[in-house]
Amino acid sequence: MSMDHTVKAFDDDITRLRGLIAEMGGMAEVAVQNAIDTLVKGDDALAERIIADDKKIDALESEVDKLAVRIIALRAPMADDLREVIAALKIAGVVERIGDYSKAIAKASRAIEDRKKFGPMTLVPAMGEIAAEMVHDAMTAYAARDAVLAREVISTDEKVDNFYESIFRNLVSHMVENPSTISSAAQLLFVARNLERIGDHATNVAEMVHYAATGAYPVDADF
């Protein structure tokens, strides 16, 4: 927020909006990290907790939607304030999707058998750590309105994409050589795909943070 408003209630609404986004982001960060832990450890109880907590993220998104609509209807925000509200609406939707992907990873992890036999199991958690860090940094950039950090998040997405391509090739080879493990290998490939999508969504958040902070979306040629 660039300046104080004449109506204190407007400031309170904007502060509340930012607080809700921060709470959603924090929960999504935890969900991604827990999903990785579930994959590595095969912890079914943790998987169930991820699935249950996703409903809380969904509820927060609904609260953001209602508050943003109320702000637009009652306060008619302009310039920086309008960008703030629009960015919050979009970011809430993206963060909700990150929660969904974490839930999908938790469900898929429960279907993976004999996980220690999969060579690519060493790659997927490493990919997940980068994706989780992207989510953390994107939300940190949002809290600080840090366009520089947002651009760093965007540039990191290429690492996640490269991991996914490597894991895809490894898993296809593994399935050809070990047909009896195709079912579990397919679930692991599904996990890797969801982590790749989490990286994409963290990038989307970073792009909207850049927009909220500068009034312009980052251009690919700038990287």
Salient structural properties:
Phosphate-specific transport system accessory protein PhoU; elongated; 223 residues; transport; mainly alpha; PhoU-like_sf; phosphate transport
Describe this structure as you would to a colleague:
The chain contains 6 helices and no strands. By secondary structure, the chain is an all-alpha fold. It has one domain: Phosphate transport system protein phou homolog 2, domain 2 (Methane Monooxygenase Hydroxylase, Chain G, domain 1). It is elongated.
Sequence-ordered SSE layout with sheet pairings:
Layout: H1 8-41, H2 44-75, H3 79-109, H4 123-144, H5 147-177, H6 182-214
Helix pairs in contact: 1-2, 1-3, 1-4, 2-3, 3-6, 4-5, 4-6, 5-6
Give the gist of this structure.
The protein is mainly α. The chain contains 6 helices and no strands. The protein has a single domain, classed as Up-down Bundle (Methane Monooxygenase Hydroxylase, Chain G, domain 1), CATH 1.20.58.220.
Number of structural units classed as domains: 1
The CATH homologous superfamily is called: Phosphate transport system protein phou homolog 2, domain 2
N-to-C SSE string, H for helix and E for strand: HHHHHH
Under CATH at level 1, the class stands as: Mainly Alpha
Shape: elongated
pLDDT averaged residue by residue: 89
Major β-sheet profile: none
Tell me what the CATH architecture is.
Up-down Bundle
| Poorly predicted sequence stretches spanning 5 or more consecutive residues | none
> Number of DSSP helices?
6
User: At the third CATH level, what is the topology name?
Assistant: Methane Monooxygenase Hydroxylase, Chain G, domain 1
- Gyration radius (Cα, Å) is 19 Å
Portion in helices: over 70%
Distance between the termini: 27 Å
Number of strands: 0
**Which secondary-structure class do the elements indicate?**
mainly alpha
Strand content: under 5%
